[in-house]
Amino acid sequence: MKFLAIDTSGRALTLAAVNGEETAFICREDCAMQHSVLLMDAIDRALRQAHLTAEECDFFACVVGPGSFTGIRIGIATVKGLCLACKKPALALTSFDTLAYAERDGKRLCLVDAGHGNYYLCGYDGDRVCIPPAFCPRAEADGFIAQGFVPVASAALFDGVKAADTARGLVRAASAKAGEACGAHALEALYLRKSSAEEKRA
Description:
- The protein has helices at residues 35-49, 69-86, 95-100, 138-146, 166-176, 196-201, and strands at 2-7, 13-19, 22-28, 59-63, 90-93, 107-115, 118-125, 128-137, 150-153, 162-163.
- It has 2 domains: 2-94 and 166-201, Nucleotidyltransferase, domain 5 (2-Layer Sandwich), CATH 3.30.420; 96-163, Nucleotidyltransferase, domain 5 (2-Layer Sandwich).
- The chain starts with a strand and ends with a helix.
- A 5-stranded mixed sheet has the order 3-2-1-4-5, sandwiched between helices.
- By secondary structure, the protein is of the alpha/beta class.
């Protein structure tokens, strides 16, 4: 299997180029929301390190949310462009997938910081989604944790949260879901709430 997967949904920039047994990772923990500036060079570097060309990829994957509204749009637009240029399918992954596939055992509550004490969350039992994606306050997350779900995030958001290796999760999720790749036109952002601009207009 050969593919390129990118995640621009948060402050970090994560890419993985997979060429069979060879995988090249590019991870910048805090790129100060400079995804649009850094992304194309990072893609070139990852492909070179994996001894792979874009044309050789079976598909291109990107994280479609939830997370940074701007970052998500940059990732989707980039992958759509690659798919159209190379005539390859696209695979949509969620921020929750990168967490769930990094920690695949048991019941996990995958959390993404939504600011102001709120979280995007999704529950998994094994690889199966058992709590649908939602935008919730901390109290609701605590309720699921009390039911036996282990909280997982890209960083220790609060006491008890397990920090996951989202780069590995990105590759595992893309590998596991490769059969779901489809036309790039089907890539859509996963927004679980309105943007700040939309909320201010309301």
